[in-house]
Write a structure and sequence with these properties.
Chain A: InterPro entries: Cell/Rod_1, Cell/Rod_MreC_2, MreC, MreC_beta-barrel_core. Chain A: Belongs to the MreC family. Chain A: It comes from Ammonifex degensii. Chain A: One of its GO terms (biological process) is regulation of cell shape. The structure holds 2 protein chains of 2 kinds. Chain A is α+β, with helices and mostly antiparallel strands. Chain A has helices at about 1-25, 40-70, 75-110, and strands at about 35, 120-125, 135-140, 150-155, 155-165, 170-175, 180-185, 190-200, 200-210, 220-225, 235-245, 250-260, 265-270. In chain A, strands 2-3-6-5-4-13 form a 6-stranded antiparallel beta barrel. In chain A, strands 7-8-9-12-11-10 form a 6-stranded antiparallel beta barrel. The longest helix of chain A has about 35 residues, at about 75-110. Chain B has one domain (about 1-160): Arp2/3 complex 21 kDa subunit ARPC3, CATH 1.10.1760.20. In chain B, helix 2 (about 35-45) packs across helix 5 and helix 5 packs across helix 6 (about 125-160). Chain B is globular and about 45 Å long. Chain B starts with a helix and ends in an 8-residue tail after the last helix. Classes of the chains: A alpha+beta, B mainly alpha. At the A-B interface, helix 1, helix 2 and strand 2 of A face helix 1, helix 3, helix 4, helix 5 and helix 6 of B.
C-alpha cells in the first residue's frame, strides 16, 4: 500500500503545483496597459543599463561584421540603392502633392490636425526573451512622460503600444505580437478591418474581417483607421502582400508586411496623449 | 554554491536572450538558452532536479517578461522532467545523444507553451507554431548543444557546477 500512497501523494502535490501555476498565468495576463508594481519596476530600472550596454555593443559588432562581409557586394548594391532612391524621390513628390491637397481640404472643413508635437524619442534596449511574443524594451519611462497605452511609431509607420511602464523604461507591445489588434483601413479602397499580429518572431500581419467584395490587391497600403479609438488615424500599418478568402466565406483576409521594419527598429517615437483644447 | 552558480548562469542566459541573441536569429528565431541549460541539467541530474530547475528557470523568465507568470515555468518544468527521464537510459557523455534529447525535449516544451497559449485565447495556427517557432527553435537548440554540452558536462562533474546532489 505504502508505495502507491506515496505515488498518489506526489501526483496530488504535482496537480496542486500545476493548478497554482495555471492560476498565476491567468491572474497575470496583461489585459490592459499598466504601470509596473514597484518591485518589478525596480528590477527593470536596475537591469536597463546593463541591457542597453549589451544591446549597443552587439549592434556595433554586427555592423562591423556586416561591413567586412559586404565589401565584395558594395558596387552592385550601391547601384541598386541609387535606383531605389530615384524611385522613392518620385514617390515623395507625389505624396507632397497629396499632402498639400489634404491640407487645403482640411482647412476648408475647419479640421485641425497635429503631427506628433509632444512625442518622446526613445531607444530600443532589448526584446522579449522568447520567440512567441513581440515586445521591445525602450529606455524612456514614466519620468519622461511615457504612459501605459501610449502609441509608439517610427517615421515609417506604426510600431505598437506601451504595455508596462517603470520610472526609466517601458515595454512596447509590437503590432506583430499575436495579442495585438489594430483598427485599420485600406487606403486605396477605404475598406476597414482589424490587423492582428501573427507570431512575434515573424514580421507579418493579418488584416481580418475585410469585406468579401472589397477590391484589394497586392501593394495596397493599410493605415490606422479613425474607428479604433486607441491609435491616431492615418498612420501606415503595412502593405498588402497576399489576399485570401476566409474559411467562413464571409470575409477576406489580407496578409501584410509591416510598414516599420520591426526587426531592426532602433529608435521610436512615443506619442504622448494630446490635451484637449478649449475649442 | 552550485545553486548560486546555476542561478547566475540562468540569469546570464536570460540577459543574452533579451539582447545579444536577437542579432543571432536564424529563420526568425533565437535559441532558448534557459531551456538549453535546463535540459542539460536534467540529462545529467535526473527528473526531480530537472523539474525543479526547469520551474525555477522558467519562473525567472516569466518575471523578466512581467506577464503570464507561470507560462515558461510550466513548460520548462515539463522539459526538465522529460530530460531527466533519460538520465539512466542513455549514454550521457555522447554529444549526439545530448543533441537528440535537446531537440526532442525542445519540441515538448514548445508544444506545452503552444497549448497554454491556446488556453489563454491567443490563437496561433498549429502550422505557424510548429514550422515557425517550435521546430526551428528545437533545431537551433540541438545544434547549440554540440557547442556547449561538453563544457556543461565538464563543469557539472569537475568544475563550477560540481557539488552535492539534489
Amino acid at each position: 500500500m505504502a508505495p502507491s500512497w506515496r505515488t498518489a501523494k506526489k501526483f496530488f502535490l504535482a496537480c496542486i503545483l500545476v493548478g497554482l501555476t495555471v492560476g498565476a498565468i491567468y491572474l497575470t495576463r496583461p489585459d490592459k496597459p499598466v504601470s509596473l508594481n514597484p518591485f518589478a519596476a525596480w528590477i527593470r530600472d536596475i537591469a536597463a543599463p546593463v541591457q542597453e550596454g549589451l544591446w549597443r555593443a552587439t549592434r556595433g559588432i554586427k555592423a562591423s561584421a556586416s561591413f567586412v562581409f559586404s565589401l565584395g557586394r558594395e558596387n552592385a548594391r550601391t547601384r541598386a540603392l541609387q535606383e531605389q532612391v530615384a524611385a522613392l524621390q518620385g514617390e515623395v513628390r507625389r505624396l507632397r502633392a497629396l499632402e498639400a491637397e489634404n491640407a487645403r481640404l482640411k482647412a476648408l472643413l475647419e479640421y485641425r490636425t497635429t503631427r506628433y508635437p509632444t512625442a518622446v524619442v526613445a531607444a530600443v534596449i532589448g526584446r522579449n526573451p522568447d520567440n512567441w511574443f513581440g515586445m521591445v524594451s525602450i529606455d524612456r519611462g514614466r519620468d519622461a512622460g511615457v504612459t501605459p497605452g501610449a502609441v509608439v511609431v517610427t517615421p515609417a509607420g506604426l510600431v505598437g503600444r506601451v504595455m508596462a511602464v517603470s520610472r526609466n523604461t517601458a515595454e512596447v507591445l509590437l503590432i506583430t505580437d499575436p495579442r495585438s489588434a489594430v483598427g485599420a483601413v485600406v487606403y486605396e479602397t477605404h475598406t476597414p478591418g482589424i490587423v492582428h499580429g501573427n507570431l512575434g518572431s515573424v514580421s507579418s500581419l493579418k488584416m481580418r474581417y475585410v469585406a468579401k467584395d472589397a477590391t484589394v490587391r497586392r501593394g495596397f497600403l493599410v493605415l490606422t483607421s479613425n474607428l479604433s479609438g486607441v491609435f491616431p488615424p492615418g498612420i501606415p500599418v503595412g502593405t498588402v502582400t497576399r489576399v485570401e478568402d476566409e474559411e467562413s466565406g464571409l470575409f477576406k483576409t489580407l496578409y501584410l508586411t509591416p510598414a516599420a521594419d520591426l526587426d531592426r527598429i532602433e529608435e521610436v517615437l512615443v506619442l504622448r496623449a494630446v490635451e484637449p483644447t478649449g475649442n | 554554491m552550485r545553486t548560486v552558480t546555476f542561478l547566475v548562469l540562468l540569469g546570464m542566459g536570460l540577459l543574452l536572450e533579451k539582447t545579444v541573441l536577437h542579432f543571432l536569429r536564424v529563420a526568425g528565431v533565437k535559441p532558448d538558452l534557459v531551456l538549453l541549460l535546463v535540459i542539460f541539467n536534467g540529462i545529467l541530474k535526473g527528473p526531480r532536479e530537472g523539474a525543479f530547475w526547469g520551474f525555477t528557470g522558467g519562473l525567472l523568465e516569466d518575471f523578466a517578461c512581467g506577464h503570464y507568470i507561470g507560462l515558461q515555468a510550466l513548460s520548462k518544468l515539463c522539459a526538465g522532467y522529460a530530460a531527466g527521464l533519460v538520465e539512466v537510459r542513455v549514454y550521457k557523455e555522447s554529444l549526439l545523444v545530448a543533441a537528440v534529447v535537446v531537440w526532442a525535449v525542445s519540441l515538448i516544451a514548445g508544444a506545452v507553451v503552444y497549448l497554454l497559449l491556446l488556453s489563454l485565447g491567443i490563437l496561433i495556427t498549429p502550422t505557424d507554431a510548429l514550422l515557425r517557432v517550435i521546430f526551428p527553435v528545437a533545431v537551433y537548440n540541438g545544434l547549440l548543444s554540440f557547442l556547449f554540452y561538453r563544457f556543461f558536462h565538464r563543469a557539472t562533474f569537475h568544475g563550477i557546477l560540481r557539488e552535492e546532489g539534489f
